[in-house]
Amino acid sequence: MTTTGRQEFVTVTSSPARRVRAMVRYAAAAICGGVAVFYLAYFFVVNDREQAAVAHTESMAPVYLLGAALFLVGAVLLLVTDRAVLWAVGAIVPLLAVALYLWNGVHGVWDDPVAGALVSAAQVVLLLLLVSLAVSPPTGVASRS
Fold it and tell me: What are the respective helix, strand and coil percentages of the chain, to the nearest 5?
């Protein structure tokens, strides 16, 4: 008996392991999207403050814009694909972001240390989710009858 694409999809997604993995990916995508929005909002706040100041030092605005772009790409990838190698490589981004936050000091990167701590906590959770996705490769596709 030949199965249609819809029947295969139902068979594959009905596996408990596949459902859990999909939920982990969607949770990671939501965190990625939230962090991207945070970085984008912070980019505009920093730009406004720097333009209002007469003299300013090195601008962090491009770093926030780059962070927003990286996390947005990560969110999209988490929604459309499931590749263990991709998640292993992607785990580097939140790891570096948190490491830079800690290296620059809690007060060195963010004007508001609470905001910095919250976004860093979200990135640590994202890192853990990406590592869990990387070390447990996707389960196989259901066999065709």
Answer: 75, 0, 25
